[in-house]
């Protein structure tokens, strides 16, 4: 009698549990579609829901051939449950040069991360770049971050259908005349000066697989080079970062109006692992230097936190 009573209860429990688990899953595919404005597909084996957006709005010619989106010109974002709770997203956005930094800022406003920025092709017209993104949060908030970046791209292309060929800024003077002293007062160190240009270099060190330590002269450095005038200057350079430092530096540079042009590695098997970001900014020389100093401070603070 005991077995005949309990068996139906066990069967009911077995039927109810999957339904309850589905209801508490951090991934709701229809909700992700609704928020991103895209249509995705579920890979049940990996537990990943992926949405994609082919770049059909601008034709891209690679090495003399118009490239279909199927051949690598599709933005995508893949969502999966985070074992710690909530969800995580990873993705790759196909962007033209005038879309990269506005899309990056839109992602940052939504709490997303940017982990790489580089080209996938040579001889592309217009030039096309790929920005790798990530984040952990609720699936709704992550989907909103993806949507914000895609909406930013749509707004730019609606305003100017053809990708821009330069940053919009006042013309630089014909002769460089950047003053070193005011910049040194902000950034510190001992800059190099040449023909009205000023360059600062800050080294750090890593250990290579051979066991040797390499530093500033081997390319393990953060640098900033200024040209133009004190009133209208260009700054170009790199930041070399380790884990935990990249995002704070990116946030500060974008908040200060400095453009990010690449994020990638330069070496293999170094310890600690380095990530380089390359930037380009236009404005008053001292304003640019102040933004860089703020980024250096943010990097130092993140480094201290990371080592604790």
Characterise the protein shown here:
It is a single chain. This protein has 308 residues and is α+β, with helices and mostly antiparallel strands. The protein folds into 2 domains: 25-159, no CATH class; 180-307, Alpha-Beta Plaits, CATH 3.30.70. Helices cover 34% and strands 31% of the residues. The protein contains 7 helices and 17 strands. The chain has helices at residues 2-24, 29-36, 97-109, 139-159, 180-187, 246-255, 285-307, and strands at 40-43, 48-54, 61-62, 65-66, 74-81, 87-96, 113-118, 124-125, 128-137, 192-194, 197-203, 206-207, 213-214, 221-228, 233-241, 259-264, 275-283. The strands form 4 sheets. Strands 1-2-5-6-9-7 form a 6-stranded antiparallel beta sheet. A hairpin with a 5-residue loop joins strand 12 (206-207) and strand 13. Helix 3 packs antiparallel against helix 4, helix 5 (180-187) packs parallel to helix 7 (285-307) and helix 6 packs antiparallel against helix 7 (285-307). The chain is globular. It starts with a helix and ends with a helix. 28% of the residues are buried. Mean pLDDT is 91; it is low at 1-24.
